Amino acid sequence: MINTPKPPYYAVIFTNEKTSDTKGYAEMADQMAMLAAEQPGYLGLESISEGDKTITISYWTDQESILNWKNISEHVIAQKTGRERWYNYYTTRVAKVERDYSFDKEDM
Amino acid sequence: MINTPKPPYYAVIFTNEKTSDTKGYAEMADQMAMLAAEQPGYLGLESISEGDKTITISYWTDQESILNWKNISEHVIAQKTGRERWYNYYTTRVAKVERDYSFDKEDM
User: Fold this and answer.
1) Model confidence at B53: pLDDT above 90
2) Could you write out the DSSP letters of every residue in chain A?
3) Is there a contact between A11 and B95 if contact means CB atoms under 8 Å apart?
4) Do A102 and B92 touch (CB under 8 A)?
5) Which residue in B53, B92, B98 is closest to A94 by CB distance?
């Protein structure tokens, strides 16, 4: 569970399907997750894979932090390699979280 | 890939971890996905599971449609059963998609 602050904050929803060319993908994904975590405005990241499909959601304080992260040079290279080799398709959605609510069995 | 319209539209991000009590869960999840698809304002749904964790994202035209879906009686019962039996924890985030971009290898 990612502990995000009180809304509003931002979510970047990255959904994708991968090709059969997986060489280097896992290393890049780990590296990008670590690099994202170092950026200003980063709040957390969660990623789930099933077969060739993945949903990765990263959370950010504001739009500016997301644009900054999008344009970090290592990230730009990873995006380019992704289009050339790793992804059949992907969609990135930048969304403003307006409200949220959580349940935790341990609190009951 | 879910074909959503031009932003703005809404995403409901539902992230959860399940308990070991999985009885009835898969049937309920299928039933809720079908029921959601019948609601006004529904744009699509994608769900990925890995181990006991799931991310489900549903897309909607507007907030009103999301509230309507939240309060449909079968859905209210499913939420209650979820808290009592199926989920260790979950977070629901209602987010306004402000921009999006896609890549599809077939378009290259």
Assistant:
1) yes
2) -----SSPEEEEEEEEEE-S--TTHHHHHHHHHHHHHTSTTEEEEEEEEETTEEEEEEEES-HHHHHHHHH-HHHHHHHHHIIIIIEEEEEEEEEEEEEEEEEEGGG-
3) yes
4) yes
5) B98
Which residues pair with residue A91 across a beta bridge? A15, B102
- CA distance linking residue B81 with residue B28, whole number of Å: 10
ipTM: 0.95
Nearest CA in chain A to B97: A95
pTM over 0.90: yes
CB contact under 8 A, A104 and B88: yes
Beta bridge partner(s), residue A7: none
- Give the pair of three-digit tokens for residue A59: 């959370």
- Quick check: A1 pLDDT over 90? no
β-pairing, A42-50 vs A53-60, is antiparallel
